[in-house]
TrEMBL record:
Key word Oxidoreductase present: yes
Protein family: Belongs to the short-chain dehydrogenases/reductases (SDR) family.
Protein name (database record): Malonic semialdehyde reductase
Keywords carried by this UniProt record: Oxidoreductase
Origin species: Pseudoxanthomonas suwonensis
Single GO MF annotation: oxidoreductase activity, acting on the CH-OH group of donors, NAD or NADP as acceptor
InterPro entries: NAD(P)-bd_dom_sf, Sc_DH/Rdtase_CS, SDR_fam
PANTHER family for this protein: ALCOHOL DEHYDROGENASE (PTHR42901:SF1)
Lyase found in the keyword field: no
Pfam families xrefs: adh_short
Length: 249
């Protein structure tokens, strides 16, 4: 019998590519996202026997609960939870950033992620499931304008390690994927819709793709049951680190 993955943020980028990757390998996928027409397109592409659209805003706990309660037979038993839905908003330094942007990032990247995880944990324990949390290099290394976005991803990484501790002996595996620069709709969203800024960032940089990260998600989720990758940090070859800065007044 095929297994089921619940992938949040499956209308674009990593989540969309991951949904395709899991279905290609014979899995069923519950595909999350707000854009209903994109979820329907995914169902049309991959088949209603393989994909169930779960259209809700992850920040809306009641809508999340309703979507989970409405999972049809064949999709209701979740083996792998991929907490991927998330976003960055803004690149301004903290002293100029929008508080509303900060709140949206925290609500989406942190509060929604722990809410869905909390809700599915008993079932994941019962099935010895897998949790894959999508964090970021921005949660490991600081960079200018990373402020709250990096903070939310540091939370995701540390929460994941702490989950592992609490789940000791349960057979549940928890992995954090920490990607660097990948061309998706991420920068379009971060810049509040500036396609030119997004194109400029990725031009000539050979960024990673949604498919690159989907392959990592699939890999960590399908390892032999005695193996747990704690964190998987991955960057394009073209991206590395810059040094400390010194201000001389
Ligand atoms: P995309 O913008 O392409 O995809 C983001 C996905 O998240 C969309 O499917 C979107 O669906 C969903 N999402 C966002 N907000 C909500 C919400 N409130 N409710 C439901 N779904 C939501 O970006 P990526 O694929 O790049 O991003 C996926 C994850 O990877 C994010 O957590 C991001 O922080 C992380 N990441 C991205 C990197 C990159 O360079 N691209 C690098 C490191 C980490 P919809 O809008 O339809 O609701
Ligand atoms: C975003 C990754 O490299 O743009 O999570 O900071 S990067």
């Amino acid at each position: 019998m095929s297994k089921t993955a619940f992938i949040t943020g499956a209308t674009s980028g990593f989540g969309l590519a991951a949904a395709r990757r899991f279905v290609a390998a014979g899995w069923k996928v519950v595909a999350g996202g707000r854009r209903r027409e994109r979820l329907q397109a995914l169902v049309d592409e991959l088949g209603s026997a393989n994909v169930h659209p779960a259209c809700f805003d992850v920040r809306d706990a009641a809508a999340m609960a309703a979507a989970l309660d409405a999972l049809p037979a064949g999709f209701a038993e979740i083996d792998v939870l991929v907490n991927n839905a998330g976003l960055a908003l803004g690149t301004a330094p903290a002293q100029q950033a929008s508080l509303e942007d900060w709140r949206v990032m925290i609500d989406t990247n942190v509060t929604a992620l722990v809410t869905l995880t909390h809700r599915l944990l008993p079932a994941l324990v019962a099935r010895k499931g897998v949790i894959v949390n999508v964090s970021s290099v921005a949660g490991v290394y600081p960079y200018p304008g990373g402020n709250v976005y990096g903070g939310t991803k540091a939370f995701v990484s540390q929460f994941s390690l702490n989950l592992r501790t609490d789940l000791h002996g349960s057979g549940v595996r928890v992995t954090t994927i920490e990607p660097g620069m990948a061309e998706t709709e991420f920068t379009l969203v971060r810049t509040h819709g500036n396609q030119a800024a997004s194109d400029t960032l990725y031009k000539g940089a050979q960024p990673m793709t949604g498919e690159d990260i989907a392959e990592q998600i699939y890999y960590v989720a399908t390892l032999p049951a005695h193996l747990n990758i704690n964190r998987l940090e991955i960057m394009p070859v073209t991206q590395s680190f810059a040094g400390f800065q010194v201000f001389r007044g």
